[in-house]
Design brief:
Blueprint: E1 13-16, E2 22-23, E3 51-52, H1 56-60, H2 62-65, E4 70-72, H3 77-80, E5 86-90, H4 97-105, E6 109-113, H5 120-123, E7 131-136, E8 139-140, E9 142-143, E10 159-161, E11 197-203, H6 204-209, E12 213-217, E13 253-261, E14 264-269, H7 293-303
Parallel strand pairs: 1-4, 1-5, 5-6, 6-14
Antiparallel strand pairs: 2-3, 7-11, 8-10, 9-12, 11-13, 12-13, 13-14
Length: 307
């Protein structure tokens, strides 16, 4: 019998709940096309309902933590922060950054994921130009295996979230089944897709000059039709060019890291919990989140006080 996975949260942990949900109840911008290409199965396609938010993840964490995380809405922020030891803001912005900074200085752990990294200049002396948004095939990070946050992860652990379950398309040319894209010189055509997994980073020099520690880096391609991150290294049989061990990715962008501020610290995960989107076709509905096992392990080590 496989024992149930469990993490003991010794500290009081909360998460920011802006109240934003992605739902078909207010209309579906990209439903099943009325004139779908001639396919004998088209009559079976019906839009699956959805009502999701990336913060559903924190409510679901009760299954592995044994106790619920504290939900904090914008009006509750001033009073609730004083009751917490750790606080997570996932892919969102908090208007009152001053309260977050005071929370960290007094000894709290502030975890920022995805677009929440845009608040870093308001919380530190790091310039806003150091914070960048790129796009990868999937959410990923090249990890420093010597850090306690990454201890024991598989050597091939690399992906942090999958884009398709939450509504973001993949660049089809990077998949083995695609045989008429840019990888096929004879075809001369390409798919309409592009790398769509948002990856937020901070300039590594700026992060470390401020006293930060880099745990994971990312090198999303400038061209969203690119089939690699960084430059391909040695090519081995049966290994796609995006295999993590075969890249010569730049290491100058911090995606996962820690930074001491006063008595507390800021922890960043630049690609973990993006809000689902209905911008693209999603006939089979949307998941609320698609966090990988490796990313969840790292996050729970932070929230559980083990790293």
């Amino acid at each position: 019998k496989i024992p149930r996975f469990h993490v003991n949260l010794k500290d009081a942990v909360g998460y920011y709940e802006p109240g934003e949900r992605v739902t078909d109840k207010d209309g579906n911008p990209v439903g099943v096309p009325a004139h779908f290409p001639d396919n004998p199965l088209v009559h079976q396609l019906h839009q699956t309902p959805y009502d999701v938010s990336n913060t559903d993840y924190f409510r679901d964490l009760k299954k592995v933590t044994g106790k619920p995380l504290t939900k904090v809405t914008p009006p509750e922020l001033p009073s609730r922060l004083n009751q917490l030891d750790k606080f997570v803001v996932a892919d969102s912005q908090v208007n009152d950054a001053g309260r977050l900074k005071a929370f960290v200085k007094k000894g709290g752990d502030l975890v920022l994921t995805d677009s929440a990294l845009r608040m870093i200049p308001s919380l530190t002396k790091i310039d806003k130009k150091a914070v960048k948004k790129g796009f990868g095939y999937v959410g990923y990070a090249d990890l420093d295996r010597s850090n306690p946050i990454t201890h024991g992860l598989l050597a091939t652990a690399w992906q942090t979230f999958a884009p398709t379950p939450i509504g973001y398309p993949l660049l089809m040319e990077r998949d083995a089944y695609w045989n008429s894209g840019t990888n096929n010189e004879d075809a001369g055509t390409s798919s309409p897709t592009k790398n769509s997994a948002a990856i937020w980073t901070v300039d590594r020099d700026a992060w470390e000059d401020a006293g930060g520690v880099t745990i994971g880096t990312a090198d999303p391609p400038k061209n969203r039709k690119s089939v690699t991150e960084g430059e391909p290294k040695d090519v081995y049989e049966n290994c796609y060019d995006y295999c993590f061990a075969k890249r010569m990715a730049a290491q100058d962008k911090t995606e996962i890291g820690t930074l001491k501020v006063g008595k507390g610290r800021i922890v960043i995960f630049g690609a973990m919990l993006p809000q689902p989107t209905e911008q693209f076709a999603h006939w089979f509905g949307l998941n609320a989140y698609s966090v990988s096992a490796a990313a969840q392990t790292m996050l729970l080590r932070v929230l559980g006080g083990k790293a």
